[in-house]
User: Which sequence fits this backbone?
């Protein structure tokens, strides 16, 4: 009796395995030649914000390489301390401290040392931005920002830049958590023009900023300093012109279903969750293919205004100056001879301009 039961169990398992293999085979069945399978660019839909572990992915491709569509699964929020976590931080006990406090030492190389005094201030025009490509709202945190480090309570970092009368300069310090790290602005006679430490509204704030309206052409200086706390890992700062700053973007769009003679605006992409409020398009491209199929027409609709292209490279016409802060849908049309319904989820790329502002949520 036991042998019969065992045999029946084995037979049942073999039958289930055969059915599973049949189902798998059916799912992999190829579409007839001339028809189109459902596609999405690079395979998946996703959102692109700050990573769950609260740091940003470095762009390993060149800033002008629009073919690399990097997708990052993430959530939108920074961590509760409001700074980006780095893997390059070690911690050590300061044995000379009476409180044996925990201090941070970073392996990040500060390219701007030795800039510890007014006289040795580093020229801001020689600094390098942390990021110039926007793929998500979270990346606004580092977009256009520079980075430096304070390695002791006595360390100061000085930077200088030349500005003309009538210009507006955005002075910003972030990635400091809620620590007592500050930024101050000076003229070339060493007169202090503004200091975040003297501005009570910034006490304990994760970002400190100031719009400086230049009255007199000359050289201006900023000093970044600590009143005992050290940044984790490195602070971000900005000391440049506020308006009409130009950056690149690469955004994965939500998909729409399309066919040879119909377009369907199925899902919206919320550009307000990606671009700053001041963002204006300088140029825009939509990836013009689904697999190996070249689309004959692509349309994007932003804030109820449509922009269409029939160019082979996917360039949208007349979009320069368009407001990017709004909801957006995409459409497309298949070439003659291709039947069926396809799923069109292009990457939207190009350049935009904006004003430099505090990170959304940090405004006062």
Assistant:
């Amino acid at each position: 009796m036991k042998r019969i039961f065992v045999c029946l169990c084995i037979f049942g398992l073999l039958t289930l395995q055969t059915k599973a293999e049949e189902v798998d085979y059916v799912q992999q069945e190829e579409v007839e030649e001339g028809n189109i399978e459902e596609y999405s660019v690079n395979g998946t839909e996703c959102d692109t914000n700050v990573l769950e572990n609260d740091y940003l992915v470095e762009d390993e491709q060149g800033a002008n390489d629009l073919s690399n569509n990097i997708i990052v699964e993430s959530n939108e929020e920074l961590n509760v301390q409001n700074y980006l976590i780095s893997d390059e931080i070690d911690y050590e006990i300061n044995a000379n401290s009476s409180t044996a406090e925990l201090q941070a030492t970073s392996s990040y190389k500060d390219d701007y040392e030795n800039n510890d005094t007014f006289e040795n201030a580093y020229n801001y025009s020689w600094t390098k931005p942390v990021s110039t490509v926007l793929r998500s709202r979270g990346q606004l945190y580092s977009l256009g920002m520079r980075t430096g480090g304070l390695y002791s309570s006595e360390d100061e970092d000085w930077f200088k830049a030349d500005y003309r009368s009538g210009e507006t300069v955005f002075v910003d310090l972030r990635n400091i958590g809620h620590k007592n790290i500050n930024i101050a602005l000076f003229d070339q006679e060493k007169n202090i023009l503004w200091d975040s430490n003297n501005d009570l509204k910034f006490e304990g704030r994760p970002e400190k900023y100031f719009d400086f309206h230049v009255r007199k052409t000359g050289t201006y200086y900023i000093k970044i300093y600590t009143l005992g706390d050290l940044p984790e890992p490195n602070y971000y700062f900005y000391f440049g012109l506020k308006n009409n700053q130009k950056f690149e973007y690469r955004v994965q769009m939500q998909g729409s279903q399309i066919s040879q003679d119909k377009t369907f605006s199925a899902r919206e992409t919320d550009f307000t969750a990606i671009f700053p409020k001041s963002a204006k398009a300088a140029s825009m491209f939509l990836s013009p293919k689904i697999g190996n199929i070249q689309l004959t027409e692509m349309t994007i609709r932003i804030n109820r205004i449509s922009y269409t292209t029939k160019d082979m490279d996917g360039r949208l016409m007349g979009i320069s100056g368009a407001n990017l802060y709004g909801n957006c849908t995409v459409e497309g049309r298949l070439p003659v001879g291709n039947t069926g319904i396809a799923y069109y989820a292009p990457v939207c790329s190009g350049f935009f301009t904006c004003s430099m502002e505090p990170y959304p949520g940090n405004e006062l």
